[in-house]
Amino acid sequence: MNPNPRQLTLLKVVQAQGSVTVEQLAETLGVTLQTVRRDVQRLADEELLIRFHGGVRVPSSTIENMAHQQRENLNAEGKYRIAQAVAAAVPNNCSLILNIGTTTEAIAKALMQHSGLQVITNNLNVASILSANAKSEVIVVGGVVRGRDRGIVGEAAVDFIRQFKVDIAVIGISGIEADGSLRDYDYREVKVAQTIMSHAREVWLAADNSKFNRPAMVEVATLSQIDRLFTDAPPPDPFPALLTDALVQYDVAVPA
């Protein structure tokens, strides 16, 4: 297709922000919701954009994740709401593991007022944020540091985490597919995430709505291995039924 000037502008807006709601696009472009929906459908049909519940995002590869800065901007408002909901559920004086991801980094910011936390992390961004909280302690996992997002991966990280058993593991994920599998891109990161899950008494998944039906190459786990899901919009079909069957409690952090 040859996008018209309005559709080209729409593409640029989505590419700049990573993820945008239909309402935001209509306001930015100064057109009706119906016009935006038609444009989005046309661009999605050409695989230039990916639609999700209430919005649109840039396409993603099944073998490579987006850049850290782009992921940080992707649905930032939804991640903020998820982070506030997770922080409200985390009690003081407990042990946590936070893994790699921009959502867990948002959660770290939301935990700054907690006290008595023992936080283990393989995310140097999380460690940098929470180390400013004098009322809690941060333990950094050893291993290989990925320059693109400051995540720590590899066998040394796996061996380090095996020493611990924490109250709650709070994990992010790159995609949740319609078969109920949780997926990511880097098999080294996946090995660490699997170890984190097996060394926690409860596993909480924090995933914004763009992660549903998003493909990725490596399977981390299934929904049945999760105790609780925090997201920012009602999950689309077939996920409510999958979550119910897997006995997963899910919390939707709706806008205030």
**H/E series, N to C?**
HEHHEEHHEHEHEEEHEEEHEEEHE
User: What is the level-2 CATH architecture name of the largest domain?
Assistant: 3-Layer(aba) Sandwich
Number of domains: 2
Strand percentage lies at 15-25%
Q: Mind explaining what this structure looks like?
A:
The protein folds into 2 domains: 5-59, Arc Repressor Mutant, subunit A; 69-252, 3-Layer(aba) Sandwich (Rossmann fold). The mean pLDDT is 90. It has helices spanning 5-17, 22-29, 33-45, 68-73, 76-89, 102-110, 124-130, 155-161, 187-198, 239-245; strands at 19-21, 50-52, 55-57, 95-98, 118-121, 137-140, 144-146, 151-153, 166-171, 175-176, 181-184, 200-206, 218-222, 228-231, 249-252. It has 10 helices and 15 strands. The chain has 256 residues and is α/β, with parallel strands linked by helices. 38% of the residues lie in helices and 23% in strands.
What brief labels describe this structure?
single chain; alpha/beta; Rossmann fold; 15 strands; 23% strand
Summarize the structure.
The chain is α/β, with parallel strands linked by helices. The protein is 38% helix and 23% strand. The longest helix has 14 residues, at 76-89.
Chart the SSEs and their pairings.
Layout: H1 5-17, E1 19-21, H2 22-29, H3 33-45, E2 50-52, E3 55-57, H4 68-73, H5 76-89, E4 95-98, H6 102-110, E5 118-121, H7 124-130, E6 137-140, E7 144-146, E8 151-153, H8 155-161, E9 166-171, E10 175-176, E11 181-184, H9 187-198, E12 200-206, E13 218-222, E14 228-231, H10 239-245, E15 249-252
Parallel strand pairs: 4-5, 4-9, 5-6, 9-12, 12-14, 14-15
Antiparallel strand pairs: 1-3, 2-3, 7-8, 10-11, 11-13
Helix pairs in contact: 2-3, 5-6, 6-7, 8-9
